[in-house]
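Render this sequence as a predicted structure.
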Amino acid sequence: MDPIKALDMEHRSGISQQEVEDFANRMDLISKAMKDIKEGTFDPLKCNIPGYKTPEQEELERKERVKREEERRKREEERKQKEKQEEHDNWWHKAELCYSMRDADKDEEKENKINKSEQWANRIVAAYKTRDANDYSLWNQWVPEDPVSLQEKAEREAELEKLRNREFENNNPEFCNQFKKDMEERQRSQEEKARTADRLKQKGNRLYKKKQYQDAIRSYMEALTAAPFNVAVLANIAQCYLRLDQLDDCIEFCTRTLYVDENYVKALSRRATAWHRQKKLKEAADDMRKALALDTENVDIVEQHSIIVGDFEDSITNNELEAALNKRGKMKNGSLPSVSLGPSSIDELRFSLEIFKKMDEQTTADNSSTRVQDAWVAYDLVLPFMERNEHVRAKFRTSGAMDKLCGRILSAFNLPEGDEVDKSRQQAENLILSGMINCAAAAVADTPRNQVVMFRNVEFRKQILTFFGDLKPSSSWTIQSSVTRFLEQVVDSKSWRNAIIAADEVISSLLAALCFSNNLPSDERKSMKMATSSICFTLSSDTSGIQAFSSHGVECLAAITKALEMNSSTDLLRNVLGFLTNLSTDKILRKTFESDNCKDTRRNLVRVLLQIAQNGEPKDFTCSERALGTLLNLSFTENSQARHDLLDFGAVETVERILSQANPSSFNDSILVLSRTASLLCRLHSVCRTQDEVFDRLTSPGLLSELCTACELASSSFGKKMATIPTELWQLCSQIWCHLGWCAHLPSVRAFLREKNAVSLLIQVIKLANSQNGYIRPSGETTACERLVGNIVKVLIAMQSDNDSGDSQVFRKKESLVVVVKALEELSDGLARKNVAILLAKLCQSDSHVKDTVRDLRGIEMMLSVSQSLKHRPTVLSRSALKS
């Protein structure tokens, strides 16, 4: 055994001598530290034990790290800010260089226009003032400045420049070839940069969709290095900054975009949003007005314009009202107030503001009964002022009181119900909630801006629609009536209307509310039904609303039928009929109406509508008009089951009764009713062919006399020498003669018409139609005047077939033939023109004198053209084309 190796610690244990010494030193330091602690002389900041740090030393190191990190972050921010400023300066420097000529050209063009107009205005005066104006020897020095001479001069200079360029190219081929080569390389470089920029832009778009806005900005900024003036990239960067709520940077890049393209709508919209968030309402409103002027069809721009410009106008209105209340001469911006308030209006406004102020001071502590009572008193006092004073409604909005009302309504909706609260207290709460909703309804009545602001309160909007959509018999009818009244006031707003249409449960509740039972209190039932019918009528005024109701099919028709059967007032009936008339224009609803599932509802509805149609009051024919219009729409197709139902429930008697009520005193008000009645009569043509009794009634002298009486009343209106005869009169006569043309094949009908001297009178009607220019088709469809002439000529063809001597004398007159040939010339190709050509052909065939006269009038040539045009037509018009 080697004793030296035995004494070697590292060889024996694997621990080096240095480690042993380090351990010993550390133990010595620990012992010294413990001794200092005992003696109270230990300094934790000077503790130097290896591998150990006191909490004070760790805290000191942490602060130093934080300081270094803060300094590093500050240096990084300064570097980024410097880079951003350099990028900003470089971009604007390039932009000014690139677009300075454009701006200079615009300024120069504007200045040239002004100078040119001034030069031309003063040219003659200057010529007379010139000392040598009469020295003819100086005339050779005159230089023409008229537009034609200047254009010729420019063309000559352009030709000379072209020749000089050609000569230069021939003399310097190497230079020119190198120049062209450089141009091509520059073009290729520009195209490559454009492709690079587009690729980076697409990458940025993908990152934006993933909501990685910072990464998207970096990608867009790389795209800018290749295409610094790409407006799409600039606008996208602005959008990213807007998402990050970095409004100054958003405004900067929107401004860059607009510098390149001042009409870029997205940049205007985004900058307006940034201005709006920064409360710079005037700048935001200016941008939105320009954006809307550039893109009036953009729904998003229209909505944003409503919000931003509305807020700006609210700020102005608020300043004006404050100035009026404080009786200051000027507003904050120095302009005179434009709002003029009378003494009573000012008193009402001040009183309302005082009420709002006290409600804000009121605590919402534990005593809820006091809170309910105070709210009731406050809103009950404010309500009459809100209803009649538009300034109170405006201040209610601009002061923020309207938003607070919405919040109180939301809180009231969330109060516990049922067994959890006392019944009397619940009734009081319901009464207060109803009062607050009534106040909200008064605030939005005839005030579109208030409607928009309330719509923007998402929670309030959802709560109102949810409550109405969950209409239950157990709910308070007082609250339901108030909510319905509120929806009636806001339904004129497009935003509210779309929200109601999109909520299917609200549509179902509206249909249910139309036919509430009579068990409800009369006041609530009447007001709810009236408001509901008004809402339904308004919603059905556009296609989306009609589709929403039509999707409920049989349920919708059953509810309307029940509402019509339970009608209690003319106003309610008018609204429900208007609602049904709009719905009946929808093909899907008409298909549902004809289905077997809807048979009982269809028959009940036809019966009720016929009853309403014949009960029209002389002073108000609106209900009759709408009932008849609905029946016409629902029986539109020739094989419609509704036409058979019309016969079953006495449509002929209804027609006779309505026609018998026609009289001169009320004729102008009843034109539409009579026209639709005659149209309904024509609807029965297709279903009475197999029913002899009905056919005999439709062709009876009594009914024909009633129709002729209506025609005579219309003719008396024609005789008043109107400058332009209204379409309603043409339509009425067209439908009457449609029916007479349908039955003109009967000898008894022709004899009846002959007793009325029909041929002469009908020629005069055609002459009047020729003079009215009523054959022009603005929409491409046949006009009522054209249909009238077609139906009249059909009757004349039947009358001519009898070869009656009296009728023949009328037809032979040159005045009559001139009228008929004129109609052939003026009418557009169609069934009416074809009928006129047939009538002339029959007249020419039966009388050579007539043929010669028609030839002299060039009628034969027009008849041949009609024949040729009919041969080339792909389809033949049916007889029903002349019917409405």
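Summary. The radius of gyration is 44 Å. The chain has a mean pLDDT of 83.
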